[in-house]
């Protein structure tokens, strides 16, 4: 494809005043006014026919095999010319709903020879398989009056998986931090429910652990040492409904939840507990069995990759009752969800009230920083006042629902989107240390 550049169009338009003057003062020689645009047209035609033809240019696009959602990856673009090459080319890629360019959708490359390569930063915004099947390559002619462009078919594909970067980057750090603070050691020994050994009593131990019969027999105070029960069941219930598909800082809420879930599941598997995944929207979508051992983390990651984005309203009653029927023993249920209206929140509270009768329930929600910003901003117009009042009412309803959940005995975590993983791990370890699982 060959078409004029902006310079050619402006140069042709610059001859319009000359043609107008000729038509006014020399009406019999009006055709002389066509000399200017005609000359521009001839120069553009010469520029199009000379130099490098569009068929001589070619380009390829390479993507990594996989990437985490929310990550910035580099697509490698290679440009080749048969024979001589222009000094400067522009490359554009096709659109994909799962990928967005980090800066500009066009890549400008300088070529020192017949071939060259460059990196185009792309940001993954949703899970799935991203496919880029079209690439455009264009360059200017020697006179700068025409663009020479070629559309090139591609077969570049990349799998976008749940974000496991927190596990790789912060998992070991979080685990080590709690170990240094003594929490991991306490979990293994001292605050548990299973009797492990009989030790001599010393200052700082719980007096209720003293075994008076053994102390009388040995004529020294002896206390029972306990160990926390392992193989606790941790079930992560992920709401994948319409409200969880809304973005927070560029990523859907459900992806923020999945990242926090994977980080906590990795710690739980390290501590010997068993984990399961339950994803739902209007009905249950994923219901996995219990996974144990650190080697099972890859299976959990594969299951999390299957959580789809939904436009359905969340049915808490159907999903949580189905989950409760599958659980045969007391479990810790971590529910990731989001609510904006009191009607859906009422169904969630009723379902939670039935769960806490037998299970330990933790509800994780992300703070609505957009609403908080509206209430805290100084109003400039009457519309700003209306938005602030509406936002304050929504936050008040949200606080009311969370307070009701806490009164039922539900453990609630309301966190910023970039700290939800750390706070969830801390909450899980605290409940385990207190032997509430």
From TrEMBL:
SUPFAM superfamilies, alphabetized: vWA-like
Native source organism of the sequence: Sphingomonas alpina
Pfam family, one: DUF58
Organism phylogeny: Bacteria, Pseudomonadati, Pseudomonadota, Alphaproteobacteria, Sphingomonadales
Gene3D superfamilies noted in UniProt: von Willebrand factor, type A domain
InterPro entries, A to Z: DUF58, vWFA_dom_sf
Domain of life: Bacteria
Domain (DUF58) ranges: 200-374
Protein's UniProt name: DUF58 domain-containing protein
């Amino acid at each position: 494809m060959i078409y004029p550049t902006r310079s050619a169009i402006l140069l042709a338009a610059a001859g319009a005043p000359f043609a107008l003057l000729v038509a006014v003062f020399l009406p019999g020689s009006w055709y002389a006014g066509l000399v200017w645009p005609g000359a521009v047209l001839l120069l553009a035609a010469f520029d199009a026919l000379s130099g490098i033809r569009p068929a001589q240019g070619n380009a390829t696009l390479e993507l990594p095999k996989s990437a985490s959602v929310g990550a910035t990856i580099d697509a490698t673009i290679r440009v080749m010319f048969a024979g001589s090459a222009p000094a400067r080319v522009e490359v554009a890629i096709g659109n994909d709903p799962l990928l967005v360019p980090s800066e500009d959708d066009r890549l400008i490359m300088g070529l020192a020879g017949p071939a060259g390569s460059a990196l185009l930063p792309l940001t993954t915004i949703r899970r799935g398989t991203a496919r880029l099947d079209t690439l455009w390559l264009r360059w200017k002619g020697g006179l700068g009056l025409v663009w020479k462009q070629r559309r090139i078919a591609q077969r570049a594909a990349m799998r976008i998986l749940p974000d496991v970067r927190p596990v790789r980057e912060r998992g070991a750090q979080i685990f080590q931090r709690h170990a240094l603070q003594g929490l991991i050691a306490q979990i293994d020994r001292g605050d548990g429910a299973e009797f492990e050994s009989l030790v001599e009593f010393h200052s700082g131990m719980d007096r209720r652990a003293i075994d008076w019969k053994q102390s009388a027999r040995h004529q020294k105070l002896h206390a029972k040492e306990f160990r926390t029960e392992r193989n606790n069941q941790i079930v992560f219930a992920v709401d994948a409904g319409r409200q969880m598909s809304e973005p927070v800082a560029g990523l859907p809420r459900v992806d923020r939840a999945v990242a926090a879930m994977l980080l906590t599941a990795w710690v739980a598997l390290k501590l010997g507990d068993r984990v399961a995944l339950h994803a739902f929207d209007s009905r249950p979508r994923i219901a996995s069995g219990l996974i144990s051992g650190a080697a099972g983390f890859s299976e959990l990651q594969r299951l999390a990759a299957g959580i789809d984005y939904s436009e359905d309203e969340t049915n808490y009653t159907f999903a949580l009752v189905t989950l409760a029927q599958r659980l045969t023993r007391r479990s810790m249920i971590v529910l990731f969800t989001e609510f904006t209206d009191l009607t859906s929140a009422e169904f969630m509270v009723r379902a939670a009230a039935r769960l806490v009768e037998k299970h330990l329930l933790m509800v994780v929600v992300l703070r609505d920083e957009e609403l908080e910003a509206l209430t805290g901003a100084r109003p400039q117009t009457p519309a700003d006042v209306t938005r602030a009042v509406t936002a304050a009412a929504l936050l008040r309803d949200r606080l009311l629902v969370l307070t009701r959940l806490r009164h039922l005995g539900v453990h609630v975590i309301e966190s910023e989107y970039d700290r939800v993983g750390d706070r969830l791990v801390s909450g899980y370890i605290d409940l385990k240390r207190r032997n509430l699982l």
